[in-house]
Amino acid sequence: MKISRDIKDNLKKYLDELLKNEKEKVTLISAYTLNSDELASLYQYIPRLKGSQLNFVINKDLVAGVVIKIGSKVIDLSLRGQLNRLRDYMYEID
Fold first, then answer.
1. pLDDT value, residue 1
2. If we measure between CA atoms, which residue out of 81, 55, 91 comes closest to residue 70?
3. Exposed e or buried b for every residue in 53-74, given b needs 16+ CB within 10 A?
4. What is the 3-state secondary structure (H, E, C) of 5-31?
5. Over the stretch 53-85, which tens digit does the pLDDT of each residue have?
6. What are the CA-CA distances from residue 7 to residues 1, 3, 21 (Å)?
7. 94 has a pLDDT exceeding 60
8. Cα(17)–Cα(50) distance, rounded to whole angstroms?
9. What pLDDT score was predicted for residue 3?
């Protein structure tokens, strides 16, 4: 079964629009409220955040650092995440 070129093009445009809207919605999870200097450092480290719609969430379980969710992608820069990765690494060693 062949799919019409028009259907493919329309589907691609639709998916591109969904992804564009998804990219603009960013959740920033931190252990405490970030000050302007800390936000400026994040913007410098990840420039894509600057033009995005940021949703701030406080999670005291992170201890320190931030977790950034952009669509379905997660960037874990938290102390808790680093400790979990270290634990996983240690258990992998036999």
1. 46
2. 55
3. eeeeeeeeebeeebbbbbeeee
4. HHHHHHHHHHHHHHHHHHHHEEEEEEC
5. 788 899 888 888 888 887 777 878 788 888 888
6. 13, 7, 21
7. no
8. 20
9. 60
70 by DSSP, 3-state: which?
strand
Cα-to-chain-centroid distance, residue 30:
12
Q: Residue 87 pLDDT > 80, yes or no?
A: yes
Radius of gyration from C-alpha coordinates of the chain:
19
The residue ranges of every structural domain in the chain are 25-92
For the chain, give the percent of residues with pLDDT over 90: 3
- Give the residue from 72, 1, 4, 65 showing the smallest Cα distance to 30: 65
Map residue 67 onto helix, strand or coil. Answer: strand
